């Protein structure tokens, strides 16, 4: 199955927005590098995780829906594909963060940013249930919180499509989970599996599934250009309103981004050729390929850098643009090495062993973090 290059590019940009801008606050700089040009990413980059969820929902439908509907893909293979893609780097970064945080605690007497680094939280991380299940505190390599809740969406998606994919009932369940996510968010519910972390994945992932269905429907009708015009008009109206009057005009701006702006943005990118081509250029699509590595490795690299600085009293100006650019390039280079020489071999090995096949076909999900 062909990749959707433009969505690869979009995912790469989103990973950069989270890892290099939103989380740069971990360094606590006096002033943020490129603060004017990157204002949105510094202020609202948090919401790009919701874009990851939406992209995941869309791509799961694109890659797996037909095979699950036809029952040509079972729960074992589906689980192995996900496990082999996500777990090796998660485990590696978990161990790295645990080691460096322990060193930091010994020499400096504190942890860097995330404070819940005890045995209990380590076990939760080890089993990939560190957030949204039994616990809501950030711990160890905290950005992996989104992966632990996205696993819930993976399971729900399998059950919905495997058993109802041949009927239209699955659309009702997509909508039901989006509504459930909205209700959880608005009521501030905070309990096992129904909390603010899972609300985001319920909304984002299943909105992505609905976007996929709408995209396929519009592609088949003659009035396709009318839909494109409507997408663009709504997107521009909301964007211009937010820029002109501030995000307050959107009220609950996170909901607006998840339910309207991000889905429309994806549809516009897919439908307008010039945008599709821009986001399909090789450097951007490769960033999309390594986006999982960027997302999981940026915090451990921040931790190592800050710990070395504090132990050896290195003079590092985190407000400097040079420091910012050097850090970004370093994360990208390490992510490339990780992707090519650790993740791919680990993924291939696990699929070969767990699926008992010498020639496991590459059925990987094209987009995964989250």
Give an overview of the whole structure:
The chain is an all-alpha fold and 370 residues long. It has a domain at 55-284 and 345-354. 70% of the residues lie in helices and 0% in strands. It has 14 helices and no strands. The protein has helices spanning 5-21, 39-44, 48-69, 75-107, 119-126, 145-164, 169-187, 196-219, 224-245, 253-271, 273-278, 282-289, 291-312, 321-354. The protein is globular and about 65 Å long. The relative contact order is 0.18.
Outline the secondary-structure elements.
Blueprint: H1 5-21, H2 39-44, H3 48-69, H4 75-107, H5 119-126, H6 145-164, H7 169-187, H8 196-219, H9 224-245, H10 253-271, H11 273-278, H12 282-289, H13 291-312, H14 321-354
Helix pairs in contact: 1-3, 1-12, 1-13, 3-6, 3-8, 3-10, 4-13, 4-14, 6-8, 7-8, 8-10, 9-10, 13-14
Short summary:
This protein has 370 residues and is mainly alpha-helical. It has 14 helices and no strands.
How many angstroms does the end-to-end distance come to? 21 Å
The gyration radius over C-alpha positions equals 21 Å
Describe the largest sheet. Answer: none
Beta percentage is under 5%
Query: Helix coverage percent of residues?
Result: over 70%
Beta-strand segment tally: 0
| Count of helical stretches | 14
Order of helices and strands: HHHHHHHHHHHHHH
Class derived from helix and strand content: mainly alpha
Uncertain segments are 358-370
pLDDT averaged over residues: 92
Give the overall shape, derived from the CA principal axes. globular
């Amino acid at each position: 199955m062909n990749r959707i290059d433009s969505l690869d590019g979009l995912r790469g940009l989103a990973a950069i927005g989270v890892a290099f801008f939103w989380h740069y606050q971990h360094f606590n700089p006096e002033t943020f590098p490129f603060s004017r040009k990157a204002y949105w990413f510094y202020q609202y980059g948090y919401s790009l995780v919701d874009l990851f969820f939406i992209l995941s929902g869309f791509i799961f439908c694109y890659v797996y829906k037909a095979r699950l509907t036809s029952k040509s893909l079972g729960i074992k293979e589906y689980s192995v594909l996900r496990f082999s893609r996500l777990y090796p780097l998660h485990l590696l970064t978990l161990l790295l963060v645990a080691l460096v945080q322990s060193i930091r605690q010994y020499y400096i007497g504190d942890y860097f940013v995330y404070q819940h680094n005890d045995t209990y939280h380590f076990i939760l991380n080890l089993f990939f249930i560190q957030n949204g299940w039994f616990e809501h505190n950030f711990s160890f390599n905290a950005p992996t919180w989104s992966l632990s809740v996205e696993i819930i969406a993976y399971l729900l998606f399998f059950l919905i499509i495997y058993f109802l994919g041949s009927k239209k009932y699955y659309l009702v369940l997509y909508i039901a989970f989006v509504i459930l996510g909205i209700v959880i968010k608005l009521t501030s519910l905070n309990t096992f599996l129904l909390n603010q972390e899972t609300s985001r994945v319920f909304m984002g992932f299943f909105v992505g599934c609905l976007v996929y269905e709408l995209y396929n429907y519009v592609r088949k009708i003659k009035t396709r250009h009318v839909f494109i015009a409507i997408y663009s008009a709504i997107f521009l109206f909301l964007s211009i309103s937010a820029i002109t009057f501030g995000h307050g005009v959107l009220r609950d701006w996170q909901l607006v981004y998840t339910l309207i702006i991000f889905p429309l943005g994806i549809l516009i990118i897919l439908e307008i050729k010039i945008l599709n081509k821009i986001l399909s250029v090789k450097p951007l699509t490769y960033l999309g390929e390594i986006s999982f590595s960027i997302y999981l490795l940026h915090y451990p690299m921040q931790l190592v850098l800050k710990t070395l600085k504090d132990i050896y009293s290195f003079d590092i100006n985190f407000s400097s643009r040079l420091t910012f650019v050097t850090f970004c390039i370093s994360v990208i280079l390490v992510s490339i090495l990780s992707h090519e020489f650790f993740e791919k071999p680990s993924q291939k090995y696990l699929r070969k062993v767990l699926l008992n096949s010498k020639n496991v076909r590459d059925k990987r999900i094209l987009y995964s973090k989250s």
